[in-house]
Specification:
The protein is an alpha+beta fold. It is 27% helix and 23% strand. It has one domain: Creatine Amidinohydrolase (Alpha-Beta Complex). Strands 1, 2, 4 and 5 form a four-stranded antiparallel sheet that branches. A three-stranded antiparallel sheet has the order 3-12-11, with no helix packed on it. Bound molecules: 2-amino-4-trifluoromethylsulfanyl-butyric acid and cobalt (II) ion (2 copies). 2-amino-4-trifluoromethylsulfanyl-butyric acid binds next to strand 4.
Length: 271
């Protein structure tokens, strides 16, 4: 298989899927506060998808070597890097949580995105990690245009994250997406400028850096087959958008009324 180039019709399908994926996060957002459990977040997500007429791409998802994923979304708290399974433990003040939602529309298109939420007042270190991971994602997004290379995206993210004393998780990456959840290419969040695939209009992929406050090493947690944590138990943050390569640059597809605004350095350079 190779990288799919989306047609105008495909792009219309992806725009809808991505907006709906973002609206699931909008729906959940006001409920995320101290005392809510990640299972309740999962139930709210499923309720929103049912109202939309979409399906969760994660429930029952089973790549080779994995057990079926049980949640309608992923909830990764504090030192959980990704793929946290919703559970009955209430969130408490000072926690940070990533909620990652992937939906499938009636027409079979996938939209994939995630945001961080701060639970009550958080430490300066936690707020800084979440905010700088958001900036790192947008720095990656800003590299996207025809003629740029995947390595430019990874490099921009790595340079910024490591420049702030953080580390970039290597084992998981962004991915092409369309009528398949994870398709080519792999979008690494580290790398060298000018390397790897050249970007062409019509490519659609996610940018979803996982940034650790401490060391980059990760490990599996427990025996659920999914949950990934930092080896040194340091905090980890992640943000994710699905992005289209346009004729002139990029279009962030996973936007909706509740999306946080882009960082100031993006609005400042937008034409
Ligand atoms: N949404 C995740 C991603 O960004 C994948 C989650 S797979 C799951 O690629 F099974 F853990 F839900
Ligand atoms: Co993804
Ligand atoms: Co995702």
């Amino acid at each position: 298989m190779s990288i799919t180039i989306k047609t105008a019709e495909d792009i219309a399908g992806m725009r809808l899927a991505c907006r709906l994926a973002s609206e699931v996060l909008d729906y959940i957002a006001p409920h995320i506060k101290p005392g809510i459990t990640t299972k309740e977040i999962d139930r709210l997500g499923a309720e929103c998808m049912a109202a939309q007429g979409t399906n969760s791409a994660t429930v029952g998802y089973q790549p080779p070597g994995y057990p079926p994923y049980p949640g309608s979304l992923c909830t990764s708290v504090n030192h959980v890097v990704c793929h946290g399974i919703p559970n009955d433990k209430p969130l408490k003040k000072g926690d940070i949580v990533n909620v990652d939602v992937t939906i499938i529309t009636k027409d079979g298109w996938y939209g994939d995105n995630s945001r961080m939420y701060l639970i009550g007042e958080c430490s300066i270190a936690a707020k800084r990690l979440s905010a700088l991971t958001y900036d790192a994602m947008w720095l990656g997004i800003q590299q996207v245009r025809p003629g740029a290379h995947l390595g430019d995206i990874g490099h921009a993210i790595q340079k910024f994250a490591e420049g702030h004393g953080f580390s970039v998780v290597r084992e998981f990456c962004g991915h092409g997406i369309g009528k398949v959840f994870h398709e080519e290419p792999q979008v690494l969040h580290y790398g060298r400028p000018g390397t790897l695939e050249e970007l062409k209009p019509g490519m659609v992929f996610t940018i979803e850096p996982m940034i650790n406050a401490g060391r980059r090493e990760i490990k599996e947690f427990g025996n659920d087959g999914w949950t990934i944590v930092t080896k040194d138990r340091s905090l980890s943050a992640q943000w994710e958008h699905t992005v289209l390569v346009t004729e002139t640059g990029y279009e962030v597809m996973t936007l909706s009324a509740g999306s946080p605004p882009p960082p100031a350095f993006v609005t400042a350079t937008a034409t």
